[in-house]
Specification:
Elements (H helix, E strand, L loop, with lengths): L3 H34 L10 H14 L4 H22 L8 H18 L5 H14 L6 H74 L7 H35 L19 H8 L7 E5 L8 H21 L6 E7 L5 E7 L14 H11 L3 E6 L5 E7 L5
Parallel strand pairs: 1-2
Antiparallel strand pairs: 2-3, 3-5, 4-5
Helix pairs in contact: 1-2, 2-3, 2-4, 3-4, 3-5, 4-5, 4-6, 5-6, 6-7, 6-9, 6-10, 8-9, 9-10
GO cellular component, one term: membrane
EC number: 2.7.13.3
Keywords: ATP-binding, Kinase, Membrane, Nucleotide-binding, Phosphoprotein, Transferase, Transmembrane, Transmembrane helix, Two-component regulatory system
């Protein structure tokens, strides 16, 4: 199996760690500059804003227990503002800029990621200290700066809610893609089961007609062959029906009102690997595609053939959209040592000349289909360059 996705995940993880280290370093440097500005404090209260700003900066960069750290930062800011306003103490508040900036970041993150039941409370809690921070100077400052600060808070809340809506829309689209793929596979399996049940009925009717017509009795070999065909068709139909029922149960949880159940969408006919050859032949010459079918594939179950067809179709579509600089796309279908079928689509593109934006859900639906037939799918960059999509689909020996 290719290691591309694992390597890509490690690169992303290292990049995220470096980004956090840089952010922490910048925050620490800014706080040190603020501390240097009040290195000769006129009174002990001059260091309090720096300490609160440090707490707020740490809360902004927290990855775990963000809600708790946001509440601590907001509470510390409110406590300092209330204390200074009550005592009437003037302080050197050069760190207020980093404090307000950090609180605005926390407002955005609360509106974006806070649990649904606490998003309003946490957003309000973190917004309040921003609006009343001018009280540390005087009430006149509060009157003059409260409105501009409230506008900044509103912008931060709007940004967070927009990001929250984008995430929710993406989750719904991903769920819809998975549901549609499950329903499409269920329709394919339904056609397969109907085919075999029809065969069972025809075989049974033929045996009954032969027994009631008074014709010469059939030989034991003929009867054995007839009942063997009925047994095989029944076994395959039951196996596919069991899988189909499992898919429909999963899809029912994600179904929306007025969904595709009654949409009457056309289903792909269940056939053989010639459909895959036709798919590759019709891919075109930009870039050209080649197909290599192993000689030992034999007869494959229809659900395996349709899954192979779906993998090739999605991978070729992605190659056409995102690998404009590729010189060739190679499609191969082969048997592995354990009897499973491996279908691989590889190109040599380097990511230049990207033609179309990514929808983001094709591979998710494809993984759902492959997983439904107990297979596994990997997609990622190749060590020698280019991209590959590889699916391994088990084949029942029954």
């Amino acid at each position: 199996m290719p290691e591309g996705p694992d390597r890509l995940a490690r690169v992303q993880s290292v990049g995220g760690c470096l980004f956090r280290v840089m952010a922490l370093g910048c925050a620490a440097l800014y706080l040190l500059l603020c501390l240097a500005a009040v290195y000769r404090p006129r009174n002990p209260w001059d260091l309090a804003p720096v300490a609160v700003a440090a707490v707020v900066a740490y809360a902004c960069l927290a990855r775990r227990r963000l809600t708790r750290w946001a509440a601590i930062a907001a509470g510390a800011s409110l406590l300092l503002t209330g204390t200074l306003a009550a005592l009437g103490t003037a302080v050197q508040d050069q760190a207020a800029l980093v404090e307000v900036t950090g609180l605005l970041v926390l407002v955005t993150r609360m509106a974006w990621t806070a649990p649904q039941s606490r998003v309003v409370a946490m957003t309000a809690l973190v917004s309040l200290p921003i609006v009343i921070i001018p009280l540390r100077g005087s009430r006149l400052l509060l009157i003059g700066f409260a409105a501009p600060l409230a506008v900044l808070v509103a912008i931060a809340i709007g940004t967070g809610l927009y990001l929250r809506a984008v995430d929710a829309r993406r989750r719904r689209a991903l769920s819809d893609a998975r549901r549609d793929e499950r329903l499409e596979l269920a329709r394919d399996l339904h056609d397969f089961v109907a085919h075999h049940v029809t065969g069972i009925v025809v075989q049974a009717q033929a045996a009954r007609f032969a027994a009631s017509s008074g014709a010469a009795a059939q030989s034991p070999e003929q009867l054995d062959r007839m009942f063997g065909q009925i047994e095989k068709a029944g076994t395959e139909a039951l196996t596919s029906m069991r899988r189909m029922v499992g898919l429909l149960r999963d899809a029912q949880d994600a179904a929306r009102p007025g969904g595709a159940a009654g949409g009457g969408g056309a289903t792909r006919p269940v056939g053989d690997l010639s459909q895959v050859a036709e798919l590759v032949d019709g891919f075109g010459d930009a870039p050209p595609a080649t197909l290599a079918l192993a000689d030992d594939l034999g007869a494959l179950p229809p659900e395996v053939v349709t899954s192979v067809h779906r993998v090739v179709q999605e991978a070729l579509t992605n190659a056409r959209k995102h690998a404009a600089d590729a010189t060739i796309v190679r499609v191969s279908v082969a048997r592995l040592g354990d009897g499973s079928v491996e279908v691989a689509v590889r190109d040599d593109g380097q990511g230049r000349g990207r033609r179309l934006p990514s929808g983001g859900f094709g591979l998710a639906g494809l993984a759902e289909r492959v997983d439904a037939v107990d297979g596994r799918l990997t997609a990622g960059p190749r060590p020698e360059g280019g991209w590959e999509v590889v699916a391994v689909i088990p084949v029942s020996e029954d």
